[in-house]
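This entry is listed as follows:

___
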Amino acid sequence: MILTPILGALVTYFTGKAGTKVVRALALAFSLFALALSILAYGSILTENKGAELNFVEGPYPWIETFKGLSYYIAMDGLSGPLVLITGILTVLVVLGSYDLITFREPLYYSLILFFEGVIFGVFTAQNLFLFFIFYELVLIPMFLFIGIWGGPKRKYAAIKFLIFTSAGSAFLLLAFMALWIFSPNTLNIPELYGKIPFWLQVWASFATLIGFGVKLPIVPLHTWLPDAHVEAPAPISVFLAGLLLKMGGYGFVRVNIGLLPEASRELSWIFITIGLVTMFYGAIVAMIQKDLKRMIALTSINHMGYVLLGAFTGNLLGLSGAMFQMFNHAALIGLLFMLSGYIHEQAGTRDLTILRGMKQLMPKTSLLLIVGSMAAMGFPTFSSFLSEFMVIYGAISLNSFYAIAIAVPLITVGYFMWMMKRAIFTPSLSNHYHDLPSHSFLHLAAYMLPLILFLAMPWLMLNIINPISAKLIIGG
């Protein structure tokens, strides 16, 4: 899964002279192959009930002999599985969505998509902190180029701001990992660090990772790079940005903080939970006053990622499993919304909600998908996003009844999505220049909703893989 997309990136780039159709076909073929591998891997862990164990282990193989503990070590467990699966799904859908929206330098574009996919697989499967950090940083390269080359009018500003914020956060991560390597058992292999990190070191490392992973999640006030990056990035890349790159932060909090720093996570949980609540409310309230559809969707991502931080640090099975489930659900629903923002801008010539009107009459297929995607974002009970948000909030209330305040966030979310739909869809049209989605685009966009329906109808397909690893992490294993 890691090497095939990276090799595919090279093949796709160097066959660029064969024409656009060949480049697109190669990108789709490699992404479909990676998706097949991710489904097989996920299915194997699920059917064998091995969510709490490491599967498909490679290593540890010594990497740099001078530094003991720096090794190539990858594997999958119940935490990796859902994120690996959604990576495979989103990459295929991003490739398909790019056919209509990306029209220049396509060999480079599609090769970067495949490179990004391979590196993200590496992030979610690395079992050595140094290897994890390498993959974590490599993600910045294609994302910087995506925004800087194919972005909007302020793409250079947004790309540089993205790079500065994420690089600064990574510096704190590197300091934390170096401290763990120096003052712990002289290894960075994650399974070898369980239960062997002294409490004082856990505390300092927790504050460093709060900043490092917090930038990626993102938490308030480290979020300011995100709206600019989303607004300027092309719509398919916003899917990667919100669907996968933000999940690196949530994954890091669970893998490193909950897994390796359990005592500090329990003692400092009130800090992380407070930040999570602030992030939830801030994202929802600020999204409510946006006039640009894409910026509103970007800020609702901040809102939904607050759920992840809240749930992860509740210290109970419902909250932690809900946080993991929320990462998967959010990736699917936000992917549809961001792709729709790109198509709406292309079809109507604007994303301004004070101008965008009458979509119901002139863009019925687009309107239908926007309504369905908004319902999923609101946590409507017909989608699995409802289940994950319910789990997080119930887990938080089980910890402390004061955290019931989180129930207000979905109400705010419903408010601004309803306002958006009323304004853009259910008002009389002021223009006849809109055009609707072609059938092939409608079908690939509708595919974003399939996982959300499937995992609500059969939640055991997800919970049976994440509950075992959640239970293991809760007891400090």
